[in-house]
Design brief:
The protein has eleven helices and 18 strands. It has helices at residues 13-23, 50-56, 95-108, 156-160, 227-235, 284-304, 309-339, 342-352, 355-364, 374-380, 387-396; strands at residues 2-9, 29-33, 47-48, 64-68, 70-74, 80-84, 90-93, 112-115, 117-124, 129-135, 138-149, 168-178, 186-190, 201-205, 212-219, 244-255, 262-263, 266-268. Strands 1, 2, 8, 9, 10, 11, 17 and 18 form an eight-stranded mixed sheet that branches. It has a seven-stranded mixed sheet with strand order 6-5-13-14-15-12-16, sandwiched between helices. A three-stranded antiparallel sheet has the order 3-7-4. A hairpin with a 2-residue loop joins strand 10 and strand 11. It is globular. The chain starts with a strand and ends with a helix. The protein binds flavin-adenine dinucleotide. Flavin-adenine dinucleotide binds at residues 9-15, 32-35, 43-48, 118-119, 150-152, 156, 172, 174, 216, 251-253, 270-271, 276, 281-285, 287.
Length: 397
């Protein structure tokens, strides 16, 4: 039976990054990925910030496709609010190349990457974990001291070891488009119950000419129609007339930070642990932050040969301290957002559409930390508070 210090389930960005961190400390690490090719299929809009490169130490060359300076928000009434425009707020990446680079970094650090290997079961033994892995028709046993579940939104590791489920699971759909005629510096965001109930739709220019884009939307459980219905409606937006759909994708986004992410010999990280920004669905930055903490605690556990849940809970405390408050506040903002009617959304966006407020958004707006905008915004436009009690009251019902 193969034996590892650490077995990582899932060769997505978070699994590969945590494997790299531990392999670089000289640990015997394996990453098991069920698909035969890293980075495929893609389930992502690929909008991140520079922080993703700062943490992962990846070179942006070949990965960054475009730079985003601002956003045009389309209200349900058809009016628009334009924010940003002066500085770079986001980077559009090729997810496939990003994932490939992280997997190469993990291997260079010494991790074994096993593609085409699916974990079908896992069991706690007295002082280790035994995994059953399926490769083609073969079943192989593997033993490890620590198991890290980085196996995405529908994580089997989360289920097998009885960790809590995410509060919500959004369903997403998207596509790569060509023949667009966009200002490459701006993303477009569409909100409203007819376009993306419970979330929003996006159009992201993916090259510096504005001739290609990645579009998509997510819906929450309060939707009346299937995803395809909203996707067809999005394609009919005047902005997208005459464009060509090249490739479609879909996926799920887990929301609501979990109350428990570590137990005897096991930790879960990334989408498996719903470490995702509830306001935007972005999981790469928070996932990498939490993966850093996961690797630190796994390394300490290996040094001390202490693999019990009490010790591994340090990981839960560390990531919660770092990003837990932001994710919880994100869930509150989301609660408010999903309680708004289209009329309220229109009114809210109108209130924001003045120079003073837009200046505040441009100064304090941060895709990774949306909560940092709340106070300055309310200070500038106290009238925005008038909507809050009504919204909060509605969500309590
Ligand atoms: C429509 C959509 C748009 C998004 N847009 C953005 C965005 O613009 N910016 C952003 O930051 N985030 C975005 N996200 C979220 C982002 O894609 C995720 O947060 C990110 O992929 C999480 O990485 P991960 O490694 O935790 O999980 P994943 O990328 O899901 O990787 C998990 C891996 O585990 C493998 N796996 C699963 N089960 C097993 C098993 N039993 N055995 C072996 N392998 C297994 C899977 O094949 C997969 O490769 C988006 C998500 C969706 C759905």
């Amino acid at each position: 039976m193969d034996e590892y210090d650490i077995a990582v389930v899932g060769g997505g960005p978070i699994g590969c990054f945590v494997a790299e961190q531990l392999a670089s400390k000289g640990r015997h690490v394996a990453v098991f990925e069920e698909h035969s090719t890293i980075g495929e299929p893609v389930h992502c809009a690929g909008l991140v910030t520079q922080r993703v490169f700062d943490i992962s130490k990846c070179s942006p060359t070949r990965i960054v496709q475009n730079k985003i300076y601002g956003a045009v928000i389309h209200s349900p009434s058809g009016s628009t609010l334009t924010i940003g425009g002066e500085k770079v707020h986001g980077l559009v990446i090729s997810r496939q190349r990003f994932d490939e680079t992280l997997s190469q970094n993990a291997q260079t650090a010494g991790a074994e990457l096993l593609t085409g290997y699916k974990i079908v079961s896992a069991k706690k033994q007295e002082n280790h974990i035994t995994l059953t892995i399926k490769q083609n028709e073969q079943t192989l046993p593997v033993r490890c001291n620590i198991l890290i579940g980085a196996d995405g939104p529908h994580s089997s590791i989360r289920k097998i070891f009885g960790f809590p489920h995410p509060i919500e699971m959004l369903q997403g759909i998207g596509a790569e488009l060509s023949d667009t005629a966009l200002d490459p510096r701006f993303v477009h965001i569409f909100v409203g119950h007819n376009i993306a109930p419970g979330f929003f739709a996006w159009v992201i220019p993916t090259n510096m000419q504005g001739t290609t884009a990645r579009i998509g939307l997510c819906i929450g459980k309060q939707s009346n129609h299937p995803l395809q219905h909203y996707f067809t409606a999005l394609l009919q937006q005047p902005l997208l007339q005459g464009t060509t759909v090249m490739k479609r994708f879909g996926g799920a986004i887990p929301l609501g930070p979990l109350k428990k992410t570590a137990d005897d010999h096991v930790m879960i990280v990334g989408d498996a642990a719903a470490q995702v920004k509830p306001t935007s669905g972005g999981g790469i930055y928070p996932g990498l932050l939490c993966a850093t903490q996961c690797a630190i605690v796994a390394e300490e556990a290996l040094q001390k040969q202490q693999f019990d849940g009490e010790f591994l809970k340090h990981y839960h405390r560390k990531w919660t301290k770092e990003i837990g408050r932001e994710l919880s506040l994100g869930m509150r903002f989301r609660k408010i957002f999903t309680s708004l009617t289209d009329e309220q959304l229109v009114k809210y966006l109108e209130k924001l559409n003045n120079k003073k407020t837009i200046d505040v958004i441009n100064t304090h707006g941060d895709i990774d930390y949306p909560s940092r905008l709340a106070l300055p915004l309310i200070k500038t436009s106290p009238s925005l508070l008038s909507l809050a009690p009504a919204m909060l009251k509605r969500t309590k019902q």
